[in-house]
Amino acid sequence: MNKIFWPVLLALTLSACGTTGSGTKATVEDRTGGTTAATSGPGAAGAGVETTAVGGQGVSGSSLDASAANDDPRKNPASPLAARNVFFDFDSFAVKDEYRPMIEAHAGYLRDRSKARVILQGNTDERGSREYNLALGQKRAEAVRRMLAVLGVSDAQVEAVSFGEEKLRNEGDTEAAHAENRRVDIVYADE
After folding, report:
1. Whole-angstrom distance, CA of residue 137 vs CA of residue 130
2. In the CATH hierarchy, which fold is given to the domain comprising 72-188?
3. What is the pLDDT of residues 79-104, one digit of tens each?
C-alpha cells in the first residue's frame, strides 16, 4: 500500500504546484488601516504601486518592515517551521497525519535552501532494552527522513540518528511522560 501511496502523493503534490492559472488575482491586505488592493499581473493597473495608510504612515514599523522580512522563519512562533517535534505512538514508527503539514513546511524550507542541513534525532521512552530503543529511534528518524525525501529534499541535506532512551524530555513514569519522550527532534545544523 505504501509503495503506491507515496508516489501518488508526490505526483499530486507536484501537479498541484503547477496549476496556478494566468489572470489569477492576488489580494493584498493593508493592515495599517488602508484599503485592500487587487492586481491581476505585472502589467495590471495598480501593479507595483505602494499603498499608504490613512495617516500617511505606509508600512514602516509594521510586520512588513524590511528588518522583519529578513528574519529567519524558523524562529517565528507563528510559522510551522517553529514546530520541531514529531511524536509517535508506543512501539511505533508510523508518522501521524497531524504532522504532515509541519514536515511539508520543513521540506519546503530545505528545498528552497540547498545548503541547509537538518539532523533528525530519533528518541524513545525508557521502556525496552537499550538496543531495541536505539533501533526504534533510528526507525522513527528514518520515517521522517523518507517523508522529506518524497517531498523533494536531497538526501545530502538530511541525517537521521538515534538517541534511543538517552535524551529523555520527561523523566516521569506516567503515560504522559512516556509520550513526550517518543519523538523525532528536527534540528538544523546552523542552530
Report:
1. 10
2. 60s Ribosomal Protein L30; Chain: A; (3.30.1330)
3. 999 999 999 999 999 999 999 999 99
